From TrEMBL:
Protein name per its UniProtKB record: Zn-dependent alcohol dehydrogenase
Cofactor dependence: Zn(2+)
Organism annotation: Actinomycetospora aeridis
Annotated signal sequence range: none
InterPro entries xrefs: ADH-like_C, ADH-like_N, ADH_Zn_CS, ER, GroES-like_sf, NAD(P)-bd_dom_sf
SUPFAM superfamilies: GroES-like, NAD(P)-binding Rossmann-fold domains
Length: 374
């Protein structure tokens, strides 16, 4: 990406060798996420020129001198939030809030404040430490999570962001219990991941709200019990279906007004987890007296409130065991030179998840010659 809203260019860049605490990965596949599109449009500010992409999986080609947890030939899924292991958040078990990683993430560098990418000798920024819209990448060692070779790397790539975000919001943050009722706003990749997590958590009722009726039918395949299109009487309908309100509400969309609906549709003592990123100027409000009297919990969840080095392998083991149908998330695979078509299909609402495939054998998915938009 040379600049926001400018056409993406497929070019050859220089990639430096990994430093002692870094890993060089040959990518097999990378997911297409809405955050990439929002950055390309300028909605999410990020330094440019840069290489986009933050959902990736591949094979380690070189490991820095200090790296011991992965080696050459290992299959890895990439986490866009590495952690230092020593700051107050890391030591308390909340590595996605790492205070060392956040400044470098926003600056478009690796953890030491420098870049490994160059074009004609000039620096090119990283994106979310990973820059996976490329055949190779150098990443912080903590971003490379070793996984089993039985997992197709196209599936593994998606777990590094969208799937972990939705799954973790349900399992790690809401901590849904068996027999409970769960309301999920949004049936995209994150929302469907939340549906799967609610199902394996034993939820007795899983309601999904989305304006696209076909997505609601898709959500039922993943475990939803009820699908609802937004309407003037949405909250009343949810209360009727759930016997007075749901136990948990997950906002996987971040749209205007959703938090208020989620709060109103949740029973006293219930939990509302905000996952979808709202507009930077959004200032939602809640009824103060009810916030006190009803003891509802309203909280956010970044990256599934996860511990990626533990949660990513756990999710993929559940996939390998047939518990989580993650491969159903992939609607379409693309070659790198057709990435603009992937963005167009995503904007048109045609994808649960799209992937760019670099190595079909490792990725486990072929790249058809046409895209859905065509």
């Amino acid at each position: 990406m040379t600049a926001p809203d400018e056409p993406l260019e497929t070019v050859t860049l220089e990639l430096d060798d990994p430093r002692p605490d870094e890993v060089l990965v040959r990518l097999a596949a990378t997911g297409i996420c809405a955050s990439d599109a929002h950055t390309h449009s300028g909605r999410i500010p990020s330094p440019s020129p840069c290489v986009l992409g933050h959902e990736g999986a591949g094979v380690v080609e070189r490991a820095g001198a200090n790296v011991t947890h992965v080696g050459v030939g290992d299959h890895v899924a990439l986490s866009w939030m590495p952690s230092c292991g020593v700051c107050r958040h890391c030591v308390s078990g909340r590595p996605v809030l790492c205070t060392a990683a956040a400044p470098a993430l926003l600056a478009g560098t690796l953890l030491d404040g420098t870049v490994r990418l160059h074009r004609d000798g000039r620096p090119v920024s990283h994106y979310s430490f990973l820059s996976t819209f490329a055949t190779h990448t150098v990443v912080p060692a903590a971003s490379a999570i070793r996984i089993g070779r039985e997992v197709p790397l196209a599936v593994a790539s998606l777990v590094g962001c969208g799937i972990l975000t939705g799954y973790g919001a349900v399992v790690n943050k809401a901590r849904v219990i068996p027999g409970s009722s769960v309301l999920i706003f949004g049936a995209g990749g994150v929302g469907l991941s939340a549906v799967m997590a609610a199902r394996v958590s034993g939820a007795g009722q899983i309601l999904v709200v989305d304006p696209v009726a076909s997505k609601l039918e898709e959500a039922k395949i993943f475990g939803a019990t009820d699908g609802l299109v937004p309407s003037e009487h949405l909250v009343e309908r949810i209360r009727d279906l759930s016997g007075g309100g749901v136990d948990y509400a997950i906002d996987a969309a971040g749209g205007e007004g959703i938090l208020g609906q989620a709060f109103a549709a949740t029973i006293p003592g219930g939990t509302i987890v905000c996952v979808g990123m709202p507009d930077v100027h959004a200032r939602p409000s809640l009824p103060g007296p009810e916030l006190v009297r009803d003891e509802k919990i309203v909280t956010g969840s970044l990256y599934g409130s996860s511990r990626p080095s533990l949660d990513i392998p756990s999710i993929l083991r559940q996939y390998a065991a047939g518990v989580l149908p993650l491969d159903r998330m992939i609607t379409q695979a693309y070659d790198l030179d057709r990435i603009d078509h992937a963005f167009a299909d995503m904007h048109a609402g045609l994808l649960k998840r799209g992937v760019v495939v670099f190595d079909e054998a490792l990725a486990g998915f072929a790249t058809p010659p046409v895209t859905l938009a065509a």
